[in-house]
Structure formats: C-alpha cells, structure tokens
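not sure who needs this but someone in the group chat was asking about NAD(P)-dependent dehydrogenase, short-chain alcohol dehydrogenase family from Desulfosporosinus lacus DSM 15449 so here u go. i didnt clean anything up, its just raw.
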Amino acid sequence: MNMLKKLFSLEGKVVIVTGGAQGIGKIVAEHIAAVGADIVIFDMQEEKAKATADSIAKEYNCKTMAVCVDVTNPEIVAQAIEKAAAEMGTLDLLFNNAGIALPKAALDVKPDDWLKVININLNGVFFVSQAFAKYLVAHDKKGAIVNTASMSGTIINSPQKTASYNTSKAGVVHLTKSLAVEWCSKGIRVNCISPGYIFTELTRNVPQEFQDSWINSTPYKRMGTPEELAGAVIYLLSDSASYTSGCDLIIDGCFTLI
Ligand code: NAD
C-alpha cells in the first residue's frame, strides 16, 4: 500500500455510523466505505437505513447492515451492538452522529421536548459509546470513536432559540474529553467534530430567513456540505490519529472566529 493510501485507509475495519440513514451520517458512511471499511448503520428510520446500507454495499462492494436502533434506549443499543458484532464478525470504529434539534424559546420549551433533545444528542452518544467500548474491552480490542458535536456546543449564535441543542452539544464536547482521558488506558481514542451550518435535511427545512442569516454570518458566505466533514471523520478514526484523543475539530467556515 502506498503511503497516501495507508495514511487514511480504513481497510478491513467495521464501522458503526449512528444516524446514518440520511444527512451527514449517510454521506460520511459512503466516504468511510470508499476507504475500505464495512458499514453498520444504526438509525430509527428502519426503511431508510436499510436503503442506505444496501446502496453503500452496491456502490462500494463492501459488507453492510442496518439495525433499527433508538440510541436513547441503552438496552436496545446493547442488543444492537451484539447483533452487529455477530453478523459482521467484529466491530472496530464508531461514528456517533445521530442527533436532532427542536428550536423553541427557553421560556416556552416543554419538558418532554427538552428531555428528547438531551436524550438523543447527549445520552444517546454516551449509551452507544459505552456499549461499543464494553464490546472492545471484552474482546481485548483497541478502537476509536468520533462524536458529532456542533459549534453550538462552544458558542451561542443562533437567531433561532436552541438552548436544549446548544446544551446537549456542549455536553458532547465535554463527554468526548472525559471518555478520551478515561479510556486512554484501554486503547480507545475518543474525538469529536463540531460542524458549523451544514446543508442537510436538518437545516434545509429551517425558514429561509434563518438560513440567510447563518450564511451572512459565516465568513465563507455559504453553508458547508456533509462531504466537507467526511475527511475529518476518516482521519480521526484512522491510525493516522493514533496520538490524537479528546480533540474537538471545528469545521465551520470560520464562523466561530469572528
Ligand atoms: P439529519 O436529521 O439529516 O440526520 C439525523 C439522523 O439521526 C436521521 O437519520 C435520524 O433518523 C437519526 N436519529 C434521530 N434520532 C435518533 C435516535 N433516537 N436513534 C437513532 N437515530 C436517530 O441531521 P444531520 O444534519 O445529518 O445531523 C447529523 C448530526 O450532525 C446531528 O448530531 C446534528 O446535531 C449534527 N450537526 C448538524 C449540523 C447541520 O448544520 N446539519 C451542524 C452541526 C452538527
């Protein structure tokens, strides 16, 4: 294998992608398959997850599977990890990406909506990380995790009201750092990416006035694309990042710099 290929190869690895049915998860899963990995999609949208897994298998000639998982349910998550390991033979890497936003003014947000965002975006990231790490430890394997946080975990700059989302993503950044330190001795690296505004199903349904204000406030004067996140995730999952853990890689078209 030449040096360039070796640097970012995930050849022979089995990678779980949560929230992989669509959006960032789907595009990043395609890129991960393109650099040699087999793919397991964990998502609540059963049909869409299966369609994505099938299309990746066909396009990249790799093994894939889809498991219908609600990341907020630790028992379902543990079962899904077991099922995936049994069917794929092994598990190596995790892109922990499922997430939602339910914008609402903090004075008006309903307790159920607050809990839903924290449960999916933060607790879900922990439950999948823990079940995956338990699998690695039980099988005496090293591994790596990349979590999808957000620049909203670091800065507050939204004409929309998103206290629950911002809080959940700040939690993901700190969880990433906490697990990175705790699992150093286990050989499990944990990093996160913090995207700025990325054009996906999550953002495309937001009213145009908000999208325009995001674009105007971004020095790049556009939203990013999921493709522009894929290389960062692959790098952090790969052995090229073997001395990198607890890192929060901000990919935001310079939004947070001004
Ligand atoms: P998306 O809505 O297109 O995709 C999210 C996926 O997560 C969907 O397939 C959905 O079914 C799945 N999901 C939701 N709840 C789930 C649950 N309980 N269990 C399992 N799967 C579940 O969104 P996206 O834009 O691709 O966002 C992906 C991640 O990136 C999220 O964590 C989001 O917060 C983060 N993010 C997005 C942006 C952006 O601008 N799009 C910016 C920063 C961070």
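also The pocket of nicotinamide-adenine-dinucleotide is lined by residues 18-19, 21-25, 43-45, 69-72, 97-100, 120, 124, 148, 150, 195, 197-198, 200-203 (CB under 6 Å). if thats useful
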